Structure to design on (152 residues):
């Protein structure tokens, strides 16, 4: 596939992509807020600066873009054909950073939810319901400390 913009324009476009307040993140926040769930945003004092922090439940949620965080088996987790070595190194670093943040949060006693962009796109009401149920079930025996809400 041939890129329809110049490398300089593509570089500016990619650099402008923000890591906070993305469309999927805002959609999830609005849905949770409408359900009465309250949270804090982007706490810099926690590993990985989670997108949503639920202090009451000692839980956090990361809203991961499938492209940047390499959602396995997802059609949005493509690799650009130009400079594949550069992109693979970048993706590997992102995944390693995600893993470290999840591990560090777990050691600190925080529960972690990963919510994927594709799932928000295709089934936001169900994702919000599952996340709320996971938060509420914190004291049940065998309740998972980490949950992956994906596959759209």
């Amino acid at each position: 596939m041939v890129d329809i913009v110049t490398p300089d324009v593509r570089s500016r476009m990619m650099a402008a992509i923000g890591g906070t307040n993305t469309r999927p993140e805002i959609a999830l926040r609005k849905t949770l807020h409408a359900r009465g769930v309250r949270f804090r945003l982007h706490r810099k004092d926690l590993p990985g600066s989670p997108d949503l922090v639920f202090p009451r439940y000692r839980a956090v949620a990361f809203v991961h873009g499938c492209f940047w965080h390499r959602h396995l088996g997802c059609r949005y987790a493509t690799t650009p054909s130009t400079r594949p070595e550069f992109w693979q190194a970048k993706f590997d670093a992102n995944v390693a950073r995600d893993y470290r943040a999840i591990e560090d949060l777990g050691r600190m006693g925080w529960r972690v939810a990963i919510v994927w962009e594709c799932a928000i796109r295709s089934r936001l009401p169900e994702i919000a319901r599952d996340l709320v149920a996971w938060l509420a079930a914190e004291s049940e025996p065998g309740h998972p400390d980490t949950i992956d809400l994906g596959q759209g």
